[in-house]
């Protein structure tokens, strides 16, 4: 690439969000391991560097320390959170443990806007997450912004174009955070803002062709959701008949989902689609399992085994393709060997067996959901596919809290069908990020007519989000909530109570398990 912004990853859960925000500004970004040499960055033609946050302290013996030569490349550098502390530590300043951890919202006051805060308000509500802070500036730096906890919340060295900010501009909670990043990209680095979805498609297609070659075959697990559908479109565009899609009915699908996928892809796409009914196998292996991580790993391993067995009917395949996205990777495993914390395993990331027979191909693993949708639209996929709400790879397996049984799945499917019908009819389906039901492993007393009813409980989870990294519960109209609840308790005989989940992410995740 002629213009690249390097994001140096120190293990932050938000590193990929930084990269996403850069691409949102139509500038190409690439994430680098913190051990990447300055010479490699120079060879890649980077025009600016962003140092990510991270869970470590600069005082830790195992603190991730980059090649100091990156400060001598003559390109602008922006340090975020751990990044500002690292700059202070390496360039002659002083960092100290804070008397208290600064987490959550705070007020940033800008004394001197400069190029980083050009045309922005003097006071901004920002998101903090740190336990250390800069207490003495490195030579050449000046403080231009403060918070209640830090007199050096924003610092700059205009001569070298080095900047440091203690808060996280990349997260949705920081007011005008994207504008701060854009100012760094455009005003400081001189980026052209010419990176587009079309560019991504061209590069993805070229990479797929280079990786797969002209003779290898690719097997794709097609769920009918946005991610696997866009992955299929990209792969088909790149390698055509070398792609075979396999749809696995794992018994954890929503009502009528298998029939919908068969109809949509058999009639509208010229893709080799095979359907495998493995529902009994999945439910047998999940019998008695209640731990969410064990569920995900069982589902992941079983998926791969089913794909491998599908090779007998296909003949041969070299690659297993998946619609893995950045949030899946972030929450499941560290990038490279960075010290990022594990949140939960995703069936297509943390659940893969160590010695799988197929090589892995993940063309979307550097994208967030909104980017995937943009790619899907550019590839000509229909609205009902591109804008379908996210559905987890493990399916209803992570929406039945506790043990998974056919009876519980039947109750959940019936309740979820009602929810989706009402969300569609009201128009709210297209306004929210996700809306789904969760089966709770408890029973509650109810009354039907004059009789006591001791039955199941369904939770409604309806959230707003932009990239699944953060989310908030949706304030649906009360009359709609009432209609949904009344229909579920009246039409699903085994449900006596409906509750509403009003947790945000963080501290909760969107899915319950």
Structure, explained:
It is a single chain. Strands 2-1-3-4-9-8-7-5-6 form a 9-stranded mixed β-sheet, with helices on both faces. It has a 5-stranded parallel β-sheet with strand order 12-11-10-13-14, with helices on both faces. Strands 15, 16, 17 and 18 form a 4-stranded mixed β-sheet that branches. The chain has 513 residues and is of the alpha/beta class. Helix 6 links the parallel strand 10 and strand 11 (243-249). Helix 5 (197-212) crosses helix 6 (226-239), helix 5 (197-212) packs across helix 11 and helix 6 crosses helix 11 (369-378). It folds into 3 domains: 4-188, Rossmann fold; 197-386, Rossmann fold (3-Layer(aba) Sandwich), CATH 3.40.50.620; 399-500, GMP Synthetase, Chain A, domain 3 (2-Layer Sandwich). It contains 14 helices and 18 strands.
Summary of the model, kept short:
This protein is α/β, with parallel strands linked by helices. It has 14 helices and 18 strands. Residues 332-352 have low confidence and may be disordered.
Q: How many helical stretches?
A: 14
Per DSSP E runs of 2 or more residues, the count of β-strands stands at 18
User: Which spans have pLDDT < 50 for at least 5 consecutive residues?
Assistant: 332-352
> Given this structure, which CATH class of the largest domain is correct?
Alpha Beta
Percent helix, as a range, is 25-40%
Q: What's the overall geometry?
A: globular
Structural class: alpha/beta
Secondary-structure arrangement, i.e. CATH architecture of the largest domain = 3-Layer(aba) Sandwich
Order of strands across the main sheet: 2-1-3-4-9-8-7-5-6
